[in-house]
Structures are given as C-alpha cells and as structure tokens.
Amino acid sequence: VSTRWKLTIEYDGRGFCGWQRQENGHSVQAAIEEAIERFAGEAPRLTVAGRTDAGVHAAGQVAHFDLNRAWSAKTVRDALNAHLRGQGIAILAAAPVDPAFDARRSAIRRVYEYRILNRIAPPALERGRVWHVIRPLDQEAMRAAAAHLLGCHDFTSFRAAECQAKDALRTLDRLDVARYGEVISIHAEARSFLHHQVRNMVGTLRLFGEGKHPPSFMAKILAARARAAAGQTAPPDGLTLLRVDYPSD
Amino acid sequence: VSTRWKLTIEYDGRGFCGWQRQENGHSVQAAIEEAIERFAGEAPRLTVAGRTDAGVHAAGQVAHFDLNRAWSAKTVRDALNAHLRGQGIAILAAAPVDPAFDARRSAIRRVYEYRILNRIAPPALERGRVWHVIRPLDQEAMRAAAAHLLGCHDFTSFRAAECQAKDALRTLDRLDVARYGEVISIHAEARSFLHHQVRNMVGTLRLFGEGKHPPSFMAKILAARARAAAGQTAPPDGLTLLRVDYPSD
User: Are B240 and B57 in contact (CB under 8 A)?
Assistant: First the structure.
C-alpha cells in the first residue's frame, strides 16, 4: 500500500516558467518531481492546489503525490530540501495524509497577496516581488471599488482568454486593500479563482486608485462580462499564493 | 560653483562585492559613479555614510558627490535610476545640500536591521535576505543578553581584525530583538559602528538564543575585550542598513 504525501511549499517564482511542467523551461513541478525521484527512487507525479504562472511566488503552495516505500515525514521534508538546495524552492512541511486527500479538489480556500510598490524610484530590494506603479494610488478608492467584487459573480471580465474553467461563476470571499507606507497590499480569498483573475482584478483596481473611475463603476465592469471592460493584467511579480485551506486543517 | 548632492540609496547587496570600489568585483559605488558619469559627463567620487560589505543590503544608504553643472533634483534622481536599471540599485532621493554636508562625517546615527529566519526549512522567498538558523532561538534570552551591550563600551570583542578605527569605544543606543513568526529581527542604532560590529553582535546573540549562556554572560564577553570571547560573524545576507540620520534632517 502506498502513502499519499502532502507538501507545503515556498518558492520564488523568478527563474521558473511557472508551476506546471513544460516542454521548454524550468518548472517548479519538474524541480520537485526530480528531487523526489533522486531521493526516493520513485517517480510519482505531483498534483497541485494552484498552478501558478511564470514569475508568481508561493509562501504556502500545496501539492500531493504517492510513494510506495514508507518514510518518516522528517526524512521526506529534509531530503527534498537537500535536493532542492539553491533552487529557490523550500519544502515547509511534508505530511502523510488520507489517500482521499487531493491537493486540488479538496481545497476549500486559496489565499493570495498582491503587492504594489507605489513610489517613484524603482524597486531594488523588492525587485521581482512587487509591481512598480509610479503614479500615486488612492487606496481608499481601491478599497471601495474592490467591495463591488465580493460575493458570487460571473467574473468573465477578469478571466484570461486561455482560462479552461467550465464557467466563470466564482465566489470572492475577501478582497482587502491596505497600504503600508509605499506598499499597497491586496489580499484575495476564494474557494477557487479563474486563470489570471487576481492579476486582472489588481490591474483594474489600479485604474480606480488613479481616479480613472468612481468606485461604483466596478459594478459596471463586472456586469459587462467582457475582458475588454476591465484593466490590464498586473505583472506576475507582485503575486504570492499565501495559503491553501482544507477541511481537514 | 559646484553643487553638492545627497543621494538616498536602496540596494540589494547580492551580486556586489560591497559598497566600495575594488580592483576586481562589481561594487555599488562603481555602479553609481558610472551612472553619474554617463548622465552628467562629470566623474565625481562618492563619499558614503556606511561602507557595507559584500552581500549586505541597504534601504536608506546615504552618499554625497559634487557636480559643476546645475541640474534639478528630479533630473538627477530619474536619470540615475534610468542608468542603473536592472542592477538592483535604486536612487530613492537626490537633493542639493549645503557644501559642508558630508555623508560620512555629518551622520549622527546609523540604523541597521538584521533578520534571522528561524525555522527548519531553508529560505526560498527570502533567500539572500536572511540568516537561516534551524535551532529554535529564545528571543527573550536574546533580548536580555542584548541589554548588556547598550551604552558606551569598548567593543573590541565585536570588532573585525581588519577594523581600521582608532579605538573600539562606541555608544550603542538601541539593540532590540523582536520575533515576527519565523523571523527574528534585530534592530541596532548607534552614531557609528566598528567593522562587522552588528554581524558579530548578532552571531553572539544567537548563542544566547540557543541557551548556551545565561544573559548576564554577555557582560563578560564585552569585558574580555577579545574577539575570541564572542560568537561567529553572522553572514551578510541578513543585514540591511535601514537609515542614516543627520542633524539637518
């Protein structure tokens, strides 16, 4: 009987073509799968909670895989970290879980943070970790606009053309906007998101922060159900998958 | 008549051999001096408040230089940032100052932060920005030990062999230890520090955090006036020069 393992993973998205294995490009998935194979001598495939795009970071990504041979949780964590050394990926925890656990399907909440560096000078210390927006943003206007997106809606206006979801109905539980000095932090929570949904919401919130529209106009963008009605896709740099929640937590 | 310029500078110390120009190696000083020359057509030398070592970061370094030709402050800042693009250096502010201003000699306070990532898994998101210490550290013990270093003392025990200061007498105004989850932040303030003083104090505080000595033993380490009495030099990664203060501020 095999063991199902749950990994909690931190990574710096720079230098990766994203989570998912691709023909060309170095993916987070391939790096971890190779580490598993080198350590355990088995080559299982990883199933992930959130397939992050190139340049998107994670502080608490979750994935699962199966191994035939038995190992202690400490050995799995430490051996994977040893094989991943210097690659910008850290296994925060490895835990044996119920064989019915599915990192993607069992997830009941995904939590993202998006950070905007709102100042004139470009980022040096936070390069690759923030979206640099020079024009001063009014976080109160952004907050008021964000409130119109809460709840269950058709998020077609915020959905990437490549999105493969069957429908665009999603329930957004939180979309908080807070300013800490030069940094505007946007905190988003939902059971699941459409492809690029967070980055498209952030790119649209920026327009409200610049005063291009009154906050109530966000309801019209949502109702338009057309990608062209919303703002640009914010760059991946500022986005971090903070956490994935499960009923078993 | 020339104009003296004060620069406030942020940089990521990775990839630099430190602030100071060296025969071999890419220094922050050389990168900014080259940017000044390319933009202004003059080649002044920079004088800096704190000559940070290789791998040490800055959120508010200060340096001065002179230019014969007149420029607006905005032009100096924006032109330097354009020439420094992608190098991990940002000019936060450029300001014309009194010709008597000296970034090094006029400084009345230097403020550093040192960050320790205290967990089993290695850093991924904060790689190069923290010191990774696996063994659990007791921040209360570190705080109690740090208190023995406050005030005016001979800091020979915490001074690098290469230190060129005339004497080792320094007045430490703050040495705060705080924990934020997995991160222990050490905040140090003084008019000036000896070479490696902050990193040597942090490497020594770690021993107290591990329970190797009771906090009162810090007074004995200080009184020994011998480098061998103190702990290791903490790595540069965790150190950031946060701010330099001047009477004119």
Answer: yes
